Amino acid sequence: MSSQEHRRWPSASSLCDSSSVDSLDDDVEEVLARACLEACPGHGLTGVATLSSGEILAKRYVVGQLLARGGMGEVYVAFDQMLRQPVAIKTVVSTLSDDPRAIRRLCREVRLARRVRHPNVCRVHDIGIHDSDPRDVIYFMTMDFIAGESLRKRAHGQGFSVHHAVQVALQLLSGLDAMHAAGVLHRDLKSDNIMISGTDEAPKAVLIDFGLSRSLGKTGRVAGAPMSGSMGYMAPEQVEGKELSLQTDIFGFGVVLFELLTGVLPFERRGPQPLGAAKRWSAAAPSAFRAEVPSALDEVVARCLHYSPSERYPNANSVVRALDRLGSRRSA
Questions:
Q1: What is the mean pLDDT of residues 165-176?
Q2: Among 70, 65, 46, 45, which residue's Cα sits nearest to residue 54?
Q3: In this predicted model, what pLDDT tens digit does every residue of 67-93 receive, in sequence order?
Q4: pTM score, two decimals?
Q5: Which residues pair with 68 in a beta bridge?
């Protein structure tokens, strides 16, 4: 390959912008994929990944770094050779690939996620099947790749100022409101399911992972299931297997807001204790951990985290209005 052809390739740092590669010839596809994946920051996960870097799924996606691992599967950054841009792929763990229930759950996750179109909600594309070996079929879904870090990592690391914490919270509420308007209950709001990109002065929050989401339907409610969520973030009605509603996600948001402000969780990551309901779900005020948190913001968090769903904010927009009033008070 001539040096002239080499000069046509964009730098690795520009390859996450698909507009920079539209004119490239197919003979540089492999180099493009490699450079693009190298430009996408990984999460530094350790352990053996199911897929190998450079492996091609469904004759289309070049696998890159392992980004996350959970009970149902793994998430990788990959390069879409057809669209010439990075994507994230979420696989069904191999031991579940022959379980029809696992595949149905994946299909449901994609169907629900595709209802929502919002800049603060991760866009999910489609489901793929990799069956080069009939004995080891891999089912996966594709979604936008978000270059950033989880809110959990950020909040427990350098943290956020109170001002930026509120700005991130407002973005999350905007995305959550869009989900609820589309008839989707997230059911698993937690800092690991929120990605933070952008700059320190202008962070952008994106909700991800619809794995536990359910359709609200016409009733606006979802039947309960024992322990359907993540420890430390589940609302009381989730822990107790009761009916779920919009206020269930409001509780999860309240936990995340507490974590944004303090870097810790309001409740320990454990199941229900043999205590009275009100006492069990009593949390300290964020200002007890961070003096600069105003009392009005303590009140917003406390209402989100109320034991009774009927005492919480009725929807995401009502929390936005409460936070807006807080901003008005501070500027007055």
A1: 96
A2: 65
A3: 888 767 789 999 999 988 899 999 886
A4: 0.81
A5: 75
Number of domains the chain is built from: 2
Read off φ and ψ for residue 66, nearest 5 degrees. -75, 125
Residues 133 and 158 in one domain: no
Question: From the candidates 80, 177, 188, 249, which is the catalytic residue?
Answer: 188
Domain containing 278 equals 149-331
Please check whether residues 171 and 318 belong to one and the same domain: yes
| E-strand stretches of 191-270 | 194-198, 203-207, 214-215
Claim to verify: residue 121 and residue 153 sit in the same structural domain: no
Residues 99 and 223 in one domain: no
Q: Give the tens place of pLDDT for each residue, 132-141.
A: 665 577 889 9
Radius of gyration (C-alpha) of the chain in whole angstroms: 21
Same domain, 138 and 257: no
Burial class (CB in 10 A: 0-12, 13-18, 19+), 262: buried
What element of type H or E holds 176?
Answer: helix 162-181
- 85-91 and 61-69 strand pairing: unpaired
The CA distance from 31 to 5, in Å, is: 12
pLDDT score of 45: 56
Show contacts of 114-119: CB within 8 Å, 24+ apart.
115/182, 115/183, 115/184, 116/175, 116/178, 116/179, 116/182, 116/184, 117/178, 118/174, 118/175, 118/178, 118/179, 119/175, 119/204, 119/206
CATH of the domain at 223: 1.10.510.10
CA-CA-CA-CA torsion for 67, 233, 209, 50, nearest 10 degrees? 40
Q: Among all chains, which residue has been given the structure tokens 């991760």? A: 122
Q: Do 82 and 180 have their domain in common? A: no
Q: Do 315 and 199 reside in the same domain of the chain? A: yes
Q: Active-site residue 80, yes or no? A: no
Residue 235 CB-density burial (10 A; 0-12 exposed, 13-18 middle, 19+ buried): buried
Q: Which of 103, 129, 144 represents a domain boundary (last residue)?
A: 144
* Alpha carbons 190 and 174: distance in angstroms, whole number: 16
Tokens encoding 3: 């040096």
